[in-house]
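Re-running the complex after MR caught last week's input typo. The corrected sequence lines follow. Everything else is unchanged.
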Amino acid sequence: MDIIVCTTSSLLGRLVWARMGEFFAPGPSFPTLEPTGVFLFLFLIQYVIVKTYRLFIYPYFLSPLRSLPGPKDHHFLLGQTLRQFTSGSPTEPYTSWVRKWPGADMIRYFSFLNSDAVLVVSPEAHRQILQANCYAFTKPAWYYRLIFPIVGRGLVFMDGDEHKLHRKVLSGAFALTHLKKLIPLMEEKATEVCMQFDTSIDYTQGIINLIPPLSRITLDVIATTVLGVPLATLDAATPFHQIYQTVFDPSTWGLVLSAVNAVVPIRWLSVGENRRFNRAIAQLHALLREIIRLRVADEASEKGRSQAGDGGERKDILTRMVQESKAMGLEWGEEDMIGHVLTFMAAGHETTSNTIAWAVHYLALYPDIQDRLREEALEAAGGAQNMEYAAIENMKLLDNIYREVLRVRSAATFATREAARDIEICGTVIPKGTSLMLMPCATHLNPLIWGPRAAEFDPDRWDSLQGEAAKPHAFAAFLMGPRGCPGQVYTRLEFKVMMIAFVRKFRFYAVEREGEVPLVNPSVVLRPKGGLRVFAQRINQA
Ligand code: HEM
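Corrected-run output:
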């Protein structure tokens, strides 16, 4: 932006200089200069002045965010960017700042090129940003560059009235009555993953890496929910799992490219990791586009509807989108559909699979809790293979474990916003264009809310919550307000169905010690680097 402004005004200056040359005779009072020289001279002067102001004057002497507390140990040009990328965790250094200023509403830090950035801390600041003024914020350009190719133009990148309308159309798909019908599918997939564990036990001496099978199975579940067809039936040259693995699990070099691309667009550079990423995205789009095209055509024809399955009624999200948008007179096109489908597929599987993996990891670390959960599961199932929704939801310890895992290991590492206009939050004016970080860990690991043992895994704490921890905003894994996660009931159900199946069939022992699991950084999902291993033993052998 600065370059555009300086270029425009330098071009104007060059024109003015040329016109003046027509009126003044060349001489010592009006030297003859090359037009390019005039342009370059003016550009350089202006650019240096503008950048000095932005880098060294505005942030230190004029920014309204100066009054907020925050770290002062930033790099003089790169702010905290290097520390974020080299900290070894996508939630650091943010959590250490929260521990230092737990009572702050917001913490101010310097980002790339000393631009102002804000970490939102207090529940009240979260409420004002995510609920009361939800649509006064949008998504920053760097976030768009980071995830748009993966999630497309679905809910995440919609704002204002458009967002409200699309959410309304899609809300039916996440209604509890509809979700309950997905339990058999989830149970079937849980059995499948148990069989995979069972097979791998034999040739890995019991040690299983939880991430690959869970990532694959949660992708299967969300794909069947969204597209209405199991992935195995799709005749694709490159399987979906492989495509998503390329996108979500790049090499270290791929991670570096993603991070740099967020700051300066470089996806167009023809280097190996970029080519792999772009090819995977193109394959994904082509596959989904084909399915969407067929479904739209199918829905338009009587024949298709009557072939759709039991009673001719399809239940998947894609079909609901086609039907409901039509019923509301919106007639969504292919672009709308592909955006939503991509968003649900991306948002709905890595988050869930990693949450389940972290939960198994904690059960392995805390065998007494694991035994209690097994007992609860056996009692609730009463010997039956399949369970009703009410029986699953009545499992108190399982519910506590679910919340506690999401509290200490929130799958969504961050969400971000950019102020679309100057706006006052908790008494501080946030200038238009400021980037905000919203991190569940800022709430979950805050000792003022969760006490001095905030970082410890203790599912039983949910039986006797007190003070700030008992308030609704103390649990922020899905954030809140009109943009809060629409998939939270879905994910809770899938988590519970999988966990019940696992503890009924296996006993887990720790391989990785608490706090010693390296993490992928940067990452929008809290992912263990190189997988997460446990030792699994079949229950009938225990
Ligand atoms: C453990 C699992 C999950 C976690 C921790 C999680 C977390 C979140 C969070 C924190 C947001 C808010 C992002 C923001 O405000 O910018 C969000 C949004 C969203 N989530 Fe989830 N999510 C999970 C599972 C799912 C599932 C299973 C689905 C779909 C089936 C889903 C679909 C979405 C969508 C579409 C949005 C965007 C909502 C909007 O902007 O209106 N999520 N999720």
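None of the earlier attempt is carried over here. The chain has a mean pLDDT of 89. The chain is about 55% helix and 10% strand.
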